[in-house]
Amino acid sequence: MVSKALNILIGGEAGQGLVTVGRLLTKSLVRSGYFVVVIQDYQSRIRGGHNTFAVRVSPEEIVAPQDSVDLLVALNAETVELHRGQLAPHGLIVGDEAFAVSDQACLSVREFKELSGRKFTNIVALGIVSSLLGLDEGLVARTMEEFLGKKDRKTAEENQQALRKSFEWCGRQSGRIEKLPPIENPQKRLMMNGNEAIVLGALSAGVRFYAFYPMTPSTSIGQGLAAVANRMGLIVEQGEDEIAVINMALGASFAGATSMVSTSGGGFALMAEGVSLAGMTETPVVIVVAQRPGPATGLPTRTEQGDLELVLHAGHGEFPRAIFAPGTVEECFHVTRKAFELAERYQGPMFILTDQFLADSYRAVTPFDVNELSPVRPGAELNGIYEPYRRHAITEDGVSPRLLPGLTKHLVVTDSDEHTDDGHITEDHDVRRQMVQKRLRKLEGIRNEVVPPQIEGEENPELLLVSWGSSKGAVHEAAANLRLNGRRVATLHFSQVWPLVPEHFVGLLEGADEVVCIEGNATGQLARLIRRETGFVIEKKVLRYDGLPFTPEYILRELEG
Q: What is the pTM of this model?
């Protein structure tokens, strides 16, 4: 349980600049030495519609969002109407005098428009909140200058003036909340969300080709890679649709470029035939599926964990794959690297399942140590390869030497039809059987490299909470709360959901008095997969599928119910 956390909810319409306020506030908090967890909730609209940016902050490490609100920052009246019920007993509302309500603590900014010069309302909100929290004005000003410094000097000075006035105004007010305890000699950390960590993981692995069709919540991966493409020597291509995207990536990979694509569920549905092509031609590719609620367009800007079974079974025919489901921003970095390594080593599609919550959730991240990391090297060494070269040679482990076309004297041939070991089309039934077995033998190697589920807590617990992906933090904090109430609780978290290796976890399931699976979907997809692979039935589940991420409070309420 985190005793010193504070939850700040900024609400308004798209176009009012609340994301700017949220990001500037979050970056200032991280630079001041605090830990953060961010939730962004926004409608699928360019302007209008109610949006929120929630920042949970603490001097202690925190890993999950929070339901109750300690500081409600209202950029419009609708924010007060919609969220005043979430306000904690000690909470405070900050907003224009017109938004004030008599039955709750309010800091009404009578001079809101005067302080903001009538067009910098969001910067005034930033200054007031920063002052209430006890942040250093100079640090916030420098952060804003870096973030908005590319604007013309007149606008930049007006921003700084609005910030100064708001700090001065807030210093004269009463009815404040308790300031955050100052951090002496704050550790340097990065403000980073899940998609940004995937970008860094891909770059550290040596990605050279990335293709995408913009689809929330995966789009910022492509934007992040495009921003550094020239400097890092990679190609970023926006295709006309997801069918083109997956096939461009396979072509680039065949030619020797480490390749990745990203999409969401609806776009991935179009990629299914290309996924199968990767399996048949044994071509490496990393595929990021950033989940959102379906079916069809569903809730385009909300979160869910509903695509595990889709990704597990996508692509006709049988061929090996691995599926990762990072639970933290740090894991987004590390599993992305591992996906690239496995794709090259076992020559096929590897998957990363993230979701809108993790994609958009900023955290305070210790910089990654990349000094000892080396990029993935595509292709096999020429030593030991004799003529005639056979691209799909039958081997004991199923992995054939992969030469890159045009880089040696050997002819590299493959086919989307079933093929002989030298890559030519065949309908020979014996060859077909041998090729299926060869490809499936690679699964054993993938199984040997599976990331085991993480167990934390009591041995032989009375309650074991099973989870996967982005629910990790909320589950761990809920378990910590239960332990404070005297219960023997453990957590079992999967950051890789396929292949499952029963030896890693079945004994843990059997040793618990009660097992509960916590998933962001309506049918308990991981629980069903565990039953299929092990025979162990998880009867009780805590499921969420309203488009919102798990919080510790939600989990505790459902467990008590």
A: 0.95
